[in-house]
Structures are given as structure tokens and as C-alpha cells.
Amino acid sequence: YPTWKRTLTRRAREAQMKRFCKAQAIQRRLEEIEVTFRELEQQGIKLEKLLRDEEGTPANQKTQWMNQLLYLVQKKNSLMSEESDLMIAVQELKLEEQQWQLDQKLRCYMNKEESLKTPEDRTAEQEILVQLLDVVNKRNVLIHIQEEKRLSEL
């Protein structure tokens, strides 16, 4: 087994593990965000009740509650933005994995000597190339979305 093939195999496994670890971290963060959303929702409900029910409350207390409510809304919006970024990252990871798998299939066909390829092999190779191009275009769209979002936040 040539050294270069072992190296490629090792690097592929390392890249796959890296994607897997990143996916796990994203999943954990999404779960944390969900819990935080619920907590913010409960705090918001309490503040809304206080604002509606307390008629004899001093104006400065109502202002403080209103500021707290606005802070909760701002925090929720921030978390929604982060959640959106994480969902894009999940899609990107899926597309990376899909691209890697298509690359592997394509290498099998390309490593086959041209004289030994059947018409079915050539057709399959072309289909894989089309699929690979589609995945690359989808990744490009995701990158474009991220860039547009980043620029709009600035």
C-alpha cells in the first residue's frame, strides 16, 4: 500500500472527524440556544404581566421593567441571528461531506484506465461531475448568504 494512499486516507479520516466534531459542537450550541430561548420567554412573560397588572407602580419602576423587556428582545434577536449562522454552518458541513463522498466516487472512476471503462462508467462519471458541480454551487450560495449577512450587520 503506497505511502501517498495511506496519507490520503489518514487525511480524509481526520477531515471527517473534524467535521463530525464541529457538527457535535454546533448541535450542543443549538440546544443551549433553545434552552436560553425558553428562559427568555418565561422572563418576558413575567415582565409583561408586571407591566400590565401594576397600575399603581411608580413610573421609574415601569421604565425599568420596559428596559428589561427590551433587553430580553435584543438578546433573543441576537440568539436568533446566531442560530441562523449555525444552521448555515450545518448545511455547509452536510455539503462538505457530500462533496467528499462524490470526490471519492469520482476518484474511483478516474483511477480506472480509460480503455477499461464501460459506457456506463463514463455516464456515471459524468453524473458524479454534475452532482459535484451542484454541491459546489450550493456551497457558493451559502458563502454568499453569509457574506451578505455579515455586510448587512456592519
From TrEMBL:
Keywords: Coiled coil, Membrane, Monooxygenase, Oxidoreductase. InterPro entries: bMERB_dom (IPR022735), F-actin_Monoox_Mical (IPR050540). One of its GO terms (molecular function) is monooxygenase activity. Residues 23-50 form a coiled coil. Pfam families: bMERB_dom. It comes from the Eukaryota. Residues 13-154 form the BMERB domain. It is found in: Membrane. PANTHER family: [F-ACTIN]-MONOOXYGENASE MICAL1, CALPONIN HOMOLOGY DOMAIN-CONTAINING PROTEIN DDB_G0272472-RELATED. This is MICA1 monooxygenase. It comes from Geococcyx californianus (Greater roadrunner). The gene is Mical1.
